[in-house]
Amino acid sequence: MTDQTPTLYAWLGQSDALEKLTTEFYIKVKKDPLLALVFANMDEKHPHYVAQFLGEVFGGPAEYSVARGGHAHMLSRHFGRHLTEVHRRQWVNLLVDTANEIGLAADPEFRSALMGYIEWGTRIAVQTSQMEPQPVEQEPMPKWGWGEVKGPYQPR
Known about the structure:
Helix content: 55-70%
Number of strands: 2
Strand content: under 5%
CATH topology: Globin-like
Strand order of the largest sheet: 1-2
């Protein structure tokens, strides 16, 4: 990657594209027979927070860390939810469907990077959801790029 290579955040269309993606996605989630119950008490700003989180992960501004508390906060939001592989797969499927419907960049390199993060992040969410609430050490936000990950992340 060179200094002139755009971040994934820039490539996908920055905050406008992420806001559109998460807004449309969570409309589908609320209607989904499997996921609607999981997100029944979702804060109305949840799509915005997820857009901020994804933006930061993909190389955008650190808005989520500043406003919400970074990666530790995101992890803490999953405690005790007892998500299953079936929930995870449905979440991924709806997100990919939404990305396609809104015209998010479809080139193989971008979609490979996007799916790499989505697979990693949703598997962390399922693992974390099996735990009861507990203090979480602040870790750097994951930084996803074109075929690279930056951060102290090792398989758990």
